[in-house]
Design a protein that fits this description.
152 residues; mainly beta; Immunoglobulin-like; six-stranded mixed β-sheet; 1 helix; 12 strands; 40% strand; globular
Length: 152
């Protein structure tokens, strides 16, 4: 009888997903709204998906981790300058969360909604000005999952 190694299969799935993303072989999904490209992707313990920014190129830029839980958002960066950013959104809570960003030249770009323990990314280009970041799931924004950043 053959046994299935779930840990090895999960590691292989993650490796393949990263390799496809790096090779630019991911499916395209455009975020809503106007200026500034966005990338929306997510992964949970059982799935991994990705998409590319407008124009077909994967946005890179400065990496920032956004940790979400009931009911707060914590960013790994304290200062921001204009340019490209990739937010890795980690749901450290038990309820589903996402990250939505809006500000100058950027109309409501959102990550996928991730289950507890899930991780996703959101790539955006930020201009000088003030941006609001929040969880747009249900009434999470009203419960404190709402922060503002200033980009210089």
């Amino acid at each position: 009888m053959t046994t299935f190694n779930y840990r090895a299969a999960s590691a292989a799935a993650v490796f393949i997903s990263v390799a496809l993303l790096a090779a630019g072989c991911s499916s395209s999904k455009s975020g809503g709204g106007g200026g500034g490209g966005g990338v929306v992707s997510s992964s949970s313990p059982s799935t991994a998906t990705s998409s590319t920014a407008q124009g077909g190129a994967v946005a890179a830029g400065t990496a920032v981790t956004a940790t979400e839980q009931e009911f707060s958002i914590t960013l790994s960066a304290k200062t921001f300058t204009a340019g490209a950013y990739t937010f890795t959104v980690h749901n450290a809570g038990k309820y589903p969360h996402n990250l939505t960003i809006e500000g100058p030249g950027l109309d409501k770009k959102a990550s996928a909604t991730m289950p507890g323990g899930g991780t996703g990314t959101l790539a955006v280009t930020l201009q000088k000005g003030t941006y609001e970041l929040w969880c747009s799931v249900d009434s999470h924004q009203d419960k404190g999952m709402d922060i503002k950043i200033t980009v210089t």
